[in-house]
UniProtKB/TrEMBL annotation:
Residues 67-91 are annotated as: Disordered. InterPro entries: DUF1618. Residues 119-249 form the DUF1618 domain. Signal peptide: none annotated. This is DUF1618 domain-containing protein.
Length: 321
C-alpha cells in the first residue's frame, strides 16, 4: 500500500456497493485522488496475470466500492510464473435444525462475534462457529414468524435487512412492513404506500428471542421536521449504522430502472429512538466506465436494483500521512 503526503483517517464502517468496478482504466500511484493512492495494491496470479485493486472507502452515506483491474499475461507458453500452491481444507459441518425445514436460501451473510450468520429472510439464521475446529451450523428459525411470504410467494427482500450494530455486539432485523409490492422505480399512490418501519433486536443472552425495539409509521416519518422536500415513497434497502444502534439508513426513489435521471433518488438517515430526521442526501447512479464519474454519492448498486451492505473493513486500514 502506498501512503499519501497528507493525513487521512478512514471511516470506522462503510456502505459498500455490492458490485465491484471491473477492468477500469489502470489506477496508478500518480492518480490525484488520495483515497485511491492510499489503498492501491497490485499482485500477480500463479498464471502470471496482473491484478490491481483499489478500495474507495468514504464515510456513510457515501458509497464505497472496490475497483479491480485484471490484465491477462500475454504469453502463457511457459506455464504459471509461480510454483507456490496452497491447499484448502474443505469440510461439511453438521447442521442442527428444527424439524420441518425442507430447504434454505441464503439472502445475506453477516459476522457476529466468532460466528458467520447465514440469513434466510423467510426462515431464520444459521450460526456458523467458523473459528472452531468442530464447526457446526446452529439454526435459529424465528425470522419467519416476523416476516411472511406475500400472497404470491415472492421473495421480495428489498425492504428487509439483518444487520450487526453497536460495534458488532448486537444483531437487529429491519422490516419495512407494507401492503404494497415493493419494486424500485414504480411510483405508488399515497394509499398503496402505507407502511411501518419495524426494528427488532435479537437477545444476546439466549440468541432465540426477538424484541420489537422501534416502530415508525408512514405519516410519522413524513411529518418529521425537514422531511417535507423528500418523496412520499416506501423506503427501500434499509440498513443500520454499525456504530449507532438507533440510526437507520434507507433509500427513496421513484425513477424507472435504467433511467439516468438522478433527481429523485435519496438516502435518508433517521434516528429511530428520538424519531428525528438526521440527514438526507441526493444520490446519483453510475453508468459510464470512468473513475471520474464515481463521486461519493454515486451508487452502482441502486442502478442494478440491489442495496448496500455494511462493512467495517475500512477501520483496519492504516491512517495515511
Amino acid at each position: 500500500m502506498a501512503s499519501s503526503s497528507s493525513s487521512h483517517r478512514f471511516p470506522d464502517w462503510v456502505m459498500l456497493d455490492r458490485h465491484s468496478r471491473l477492468n477500469y482504466p489502470e489506477v496508478s500511484l500518480d492518480y490525484p485522488e488520495e483515497l485511491f493512492r492510499a489503498t492501491y495494491a497490485e499482485a500477480e496470479t500463479d498464471a502470471g496475470d496482473h491484478i490491481d485493486v483499489c478500495f474507495r472507502a468514504v464515510p456513510p452515506p457515501g458509497a464505497s466500492r472496490f475497483y479491480v483491474n485484471w490484465r491477462p499475461r500475454q504469453d502463457h507458453k511457459d506455464g504459471p510464473s509461480s510454483s507456490r500452491k496452497k491447499n484448502w481444507d474443505a469440510r461439511k459441518p453438521p447442521i442442527r435444525h428444527e424439524k420441518g425445514q425442507a430447504w434454505w436460501y441464503t439472502d445475506a451473510v453477516v459476522p457476529y462475534g466468532d460466528s458467520l450468520c447465514y440469513v434466510d429472510y423467510f426462515r431464520g439464521i444459521l450460526f456458523a462457529d467458523v473459528l472452531s475446529r468442530r464447526c457446526q451450523l446452529r439454526s435459529l428459525l424465528v425470522i419467519r414468524k416476523l416476516k411472511k411470504l406475500d400472497s404470491e410467494g415472492a421473495r421480495n427482500v428489498i425492504g428487509v435487512c439483518v444487520c450487526v450494530t453497536d460495534g458488532g455486539g448486537t444483531i437487529k432485523f429491519v422490516d419495512v412492513v407494507t401492503t404494497a409490492v415493493l419494486f424500485p422505480g414504480r411510483p405508488c399512490s399515497a394509499a398503496s404506500s402505507s407502511f411501518t418501519i419495524k426494528v427488532w433486536r435479537l437477545r444476546s443472552e439466549d440468541i432465540k428471542t426477538w424484541d420489537l425495539e422501534f416502530t415508525i409509521e408512514d405519516t410519522e416519518l413524513w411529518n418529521l421536521q425537514g422531511y417535507d422536500h423528500l418523496l412520499r415513497e416506501t423506503p427501500l434497502y434499509p440498513l443500520l449504522s454499525m456504530q449507532e444502534p438507533n440510526i437507520i439508513y434507507f433509500v427513496l426513489s421513484d425513477i424507472d430502472v435504467g433511467w439516468q435521471d438522478e433527481d429523485n433518488t435519496w438516502v435518508v438517515v433517521v434516528d429511530m429512538l428520538n424519531k428525528t430526521l438526521v440527514s438526507s442526501f441526493r444520490y446519483t447512479t453510475v453508468f459510464s466506465n470512468s473513475i471520474e464519474s464515481d463521486g461519493n454519492m454515486s451508487s452502482i448498486s441502486l442502478a442494478t436494483q440491489t442495496g448496500f451492505f455494511t462493512c467495517d473493513l475500512s477501520k483496519y486500514l492504516l491512517t495515511t500521512g
